[in-house]
Amino acid sequence: MVGYLLQVQSFQRQLSLANHPSIRYNFPMKILLTTLHAKYIHASLALPYLAAACKEIEGIDLTIREFTINEPADRVLERIVAEEADVLLFSCYIWNVEQTLKLVADLKQIRPGTFVVLGGPEVSYGVFDLLDRNPAVDCVIKGEGETGCRQLLEALRLNHSTTQQLGSIPGITFRADEEIIASPGRDSIADLDTIPSPFAASLVDLGKPLVYYETSRGCPFSCAFCMSSLEKGVRSFSMPRIKSDLKLLMDAGVQTVKLVDRTFNYDAPRADEIWDFIGRNNRQSRFHFEIAADLLTDDNLAMLATVPPDTFRFEIGVQSGGTETLARVGRKSNLEKLFGNVEKLCRDTNVTIHLDLVAGLPYEDFDGFLDSLQRLIDVSPHHIQVEPLKVLKGSAMRRIADDEGYAYSATPPYKILRTPWLSFEEICRIETISRLLDLLYNSGRFGASLAVLADKSPLTSVFNDAAQFWEEREIAAHLSQAGLFETFRQFAGHFLAEEERELFRDALCYDFCLAEYPAAGRLPSFFSDSVHLETGAGDKGKIIELVKELDIAEGSKVRTFSRSFSRDYRSRRPLPVPVRLLFVYISAPGKGLQVRVLDL
């Protein structure tokens, strides 16, 4: 039976490290920092921060290796073993912890001497249980890791490995013979500028399509379902440090910079200063921010009106449209101001707006969820994301869920299975609606046809009925683009009255023309015969004129297609006037397909 000691006193027992094959007395000591990403496009932020904090330690050789959860486990294990690390530090999250623990268990069979350290939000809670069930793990660093990681590596390098010496390092839990020992907790780093910049140290892979960055840590809110609520207050890097790092990222031409600040605009003047700096120095990068829309000021909105298209993307957590629900989970939000500012952002700026809902919060039943979703749809954001609630370890939501009688998965990602207000079947329906929002709304490929349906019924009813249609027919999760268009037409045939189907078909044809080139002989079944196809070979003179008129880049492939429509779908609310349009399809190297629409 493993003994648990909550605080180290004065133990003289030597850890097994003294005879641990992992701690070799020839230097440098090899350190491997690694993680499993959800997708290849992601680049770690945590590992470069740890590397920057530890790189000045004498006598260590530090390497970062990043993998994905989609790679074959045997191949990942092979590459980790090949590093021959003395100490392995693994960054753990809900999407990778189970695979990480399997990798670590296999690694210890091959290299029993490797000292394995875990860190990250998923292992910062329930540490004793984790170490008890996973004997291959030697140590866990809880919370912020920069200082703790440096002190641990310094102790291991110097062979300061007594229980008392390791126990004096705040914020770690470690294995000592048959005991698991937790040292006292560690305070948050007060001055974030004391952490060396991993960007200035060239420790971040800036070639990835998406690079994470942070200007602050903590959150002004205390939402029960979020881990950020466990930290009180917000700490910021200094403005010179922020501008220096951002300038480096922009000069390097990073494709997308995703800021992981939990509420970027907690300080409105500070947000304006950073947005203004980006505007004056940006070349081609795009920036993703998580913001609270109800905290935006008139000055913020005026600044954002100057941002060029395809530069800023805002992720805004609405979470629920129910005030009682938000109050139960400690979410302080002025919904009226939030939705009003979202409307202003959509109307007056070029910022891409992404709104989030969390399904399964207290007091919200299925009809309440649909009401919340409709409130989001009514302000016409570019994207809507719906996620069932995850009852995360360490979060206040665990206590609420237990008090209210929730059922949720015991394993990551701890998704709800049933609530007092939602059945399991209703949660499954919400997940189907979420997938259809991605396919039909977020993709932007069905704007005209969804507008036609919205004139007949609230879009929440459309998506709920579409979800039932998809479920009853067990339609595959992955459809070709043409298959998705055909399936959506089939659904509309069931949803609409006969006299309404022709208008929907007309709108669907317009959407298809925007999505891809309607090649002769391969037109979808819902196209009518009254189409006229123009190709570059048919009228080279016309194509040449279009190239000049539209300033199309040299070397692009240009094709055209013309069709008459019963309405003009180019406005958000289709105009009820017949129109004949010319679609110009431009394929340029590295830019994908671009479609321009002209009047004939």
TrEMBL record:
Residue ranges constituting the B12-binding domain according to the UniProt record: 29-163
Residues of the Radical SAM core domain: 205-434
Example GO molecular function: 4 iron, 4 sulfur cluster binding
Alphabetical list of CDD domains matching this protein: Radical_SAM, radical_SAM_B12_BD
Keyword terms of this UniProt record: Iron, Iron-sulfur, Metal-binding, S-adenosyl-L-methionine
Cofactor or coenzyme needed: [4Fe-4S] cluster
InterPro entries: BchE-like, Cobalamin-bd, Cobalamin-bd_sf, DUF4080, Elp3/MiaA/NifB-like_rSAM, Methyltransferase_Class_B, rSAM, rSAM_horseshoe
GO annotation, cellular component aspect: cytosol
Cited PANTHER family: ANAEROBIC MAGNESIUM-PROTOPORPHYRIN IX MONOMETHYL ESTER CYCLASE-RELATED, SLR0320 PROTEIN
Name of protein: Radical SAM domain protein
Species assigned in the record: Geotalea uraniireducens (strain Rf4) (Geobacter uraniireducens)
Lineage: Bacteria, Pseudomonadati, Thermodesulfobacteriota, Desulfuromonadia, Geobacterales
